[in-house]
């Protein structure tokens, strides 16, 4: 349909093209009806298929509904700076009383965060995302903000965090986004961040523990802990503990721990089956970057499971998520060997703009 093309949207029902002289319209409450201009009549059923349809969810992000001087409703696309009398939600119609598709049927490897969140109004929701100034974390923050959530980008580098905020505001000037300083390699910084957030006196509905380092050289943080273990796990563990009371008061709320399938390729127990603390924060002699990463991701999952067991009765759920093996991000930046491997794999990886919701950015880390 030419009108949908003008609106910048694909026609998802092209197999049900309207006959000449017919027009598809929507009511204010989202039901689709059809106008026959030749016979000057309207009907609820599609003139070819006989199906009844309705729009799925609210307006896409960046769109607003207005009324002209004649009382006719039109739609404003603030992102692309244009208007149309065609309801953009017509690109997302569904049959009346359809068989509900499973998640696997509905989304695939090409799904974007914006598609997954289509129709969800997150106004009034408060979200914290660690490591959200670039990469997958940024895409997650942007998608949530463009759907109305108040998103706090918790970043080690304040300047980059502020730049990320501006990039989101360029897309939608009404987005509620803010950058706050959080260095997971410093437990004192984690404490200061939690105190600063609590001073805002706002709820916390979603906490996404997304930041991580990969392939970092061995070094100790200011807390005398191995950096990969502290940044990927212990810093987040401490952050959740400090914000647990806010999460419980904000229920229903959720914590999302971003882990990895690589947790399967390691162990944190000794030969007798007991937890070996020396494996969590190893000495330089016993350190291997890949194993350190795998162990930290295993800790993420174990923590998430226990957190859900303890807090779900209080309305706070916790889930761990694997972001996908074929996503190209800045995960490799700490060592040239990983950079070479990721560069060779680049043609076979998923573009960052197709990242699903609640997946994560890998940060670089430099020893003090």
From TrEMBL:
Keywords from the named record: Apoptosis, Cytoplasm, Golgi apparatus, Lysosome, Mitochondrion, NADP, Oxidoreductase, Phosphoprotein, Repeat, Wnt signaling pathway
UniProt-recorded name of the protein: WW domain-containing oxidoreductase
InterPro entries per record: NAD(P)-bd_dom_sf (IPR036291), SDR_fam (IPR002347), WW_dom (IPR001202), WW_dom_sf (IPR036020)
GO molecular function annotation: enzyme binding; oxidoreductase activity; transcription coactivator activity
Signal sequence, renumbered to the chain: none
GO BP term (any one): intrinsic apoptotic signaling pathway by p53 class mediator
Annotated region (Disordered), positions in chain: 1-23
Domain WW: 16-49, 57-90
Record-stated family: Belongs to the short-chain dehydrogenases/reductases (SDR) family.
Organism for this UniProt entry: Aquila chrysaetos chrysaetos
Localisation: Cytoplasm; Golgi apparatus; Lysosome; Mitochondrion
Phosphoprotein keyword on record: yes
GO cellular component terms given for this protein: cytosol; Golgi apparatus; lysosome; microvillus; mitochondrion; plasma membrane; RNA polymerase II transcription regulator complex
Keyword hit for Oxidoreductase: yes
Superkingdom as given in the UniProt entry: Eukaryota
């Amino acid at each position: 349909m030419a009108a949908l093309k003008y609106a910048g949207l694909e026609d998802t029902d092209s197999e049900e093209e309207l006959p000449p002289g017919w027009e598809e319209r929507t009511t204010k409450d989202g039901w689709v009806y059809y106008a026959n201009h030749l016979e000057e009549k309207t009907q609820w059923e599609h003139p070819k298929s006989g199906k009844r349809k309705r729009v799925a969810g609210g307006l896409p992000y960046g769109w607003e509904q207005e009324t002209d001087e004649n009382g006719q409703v039109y739609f404003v696309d603030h992102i692309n700076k244009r208007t149309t009398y065609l309801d953009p939600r017509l690109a997302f119609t569904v049959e009346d009383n359809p068989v509900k598709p499973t998640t696997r049927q509905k989304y695939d490897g090409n799904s974007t965060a914006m598609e997954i969140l289509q129709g969800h109004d997150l106004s009034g929701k408060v979200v914290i995302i660690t490591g959200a100034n670039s990469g997958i974390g940024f895409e997650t923050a942007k998608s949530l903000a463009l759907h109305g959530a108040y998103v706090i980008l918790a970043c080690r580098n304040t300047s980059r965090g502020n730049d990320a905020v501006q990039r989101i505001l360029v897309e939608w000037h009404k987005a509620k986004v803010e950058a706050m300083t959080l260095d997971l390699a410093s437990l004192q910084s984690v404490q200061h961040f939690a105190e600063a957030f609590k001073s805002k006196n706002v709820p916390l509905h979603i906490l996404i523990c997304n930041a991580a380092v990969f392939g970092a050289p061995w070094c100790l943080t200011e807390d005398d802990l191995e950096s990969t273990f502290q940044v990927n796990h212990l810093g987040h563990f401490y952050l959740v503990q400090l914000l647990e009371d806010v999460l419980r008061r904000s229920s229903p709320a959720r914590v999302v721990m971003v882990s990895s399938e690589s947790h399967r390729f390691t162990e944190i127990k000794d030969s007798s089956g007991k937890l070996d603390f020396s494996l969590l924060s190893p000495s330089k002699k016993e350190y291997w970057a890949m194993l350190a990463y795998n162990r930290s991701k295993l800790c993420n999952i174990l923590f998430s499971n226990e957190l859900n067991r303890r807090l779900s009765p209080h309305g706070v759920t916790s889930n761990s998520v694997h972001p996908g093996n074929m996503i190209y991000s800045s995960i490799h930046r700490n060592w040239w060997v990983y950079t070479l491997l990721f560069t060779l794999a680049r043609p076979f990886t998923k573009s960052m703009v197709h990242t699903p919701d609640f997946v994560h950015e890998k940060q670089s880390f430099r020893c003090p």
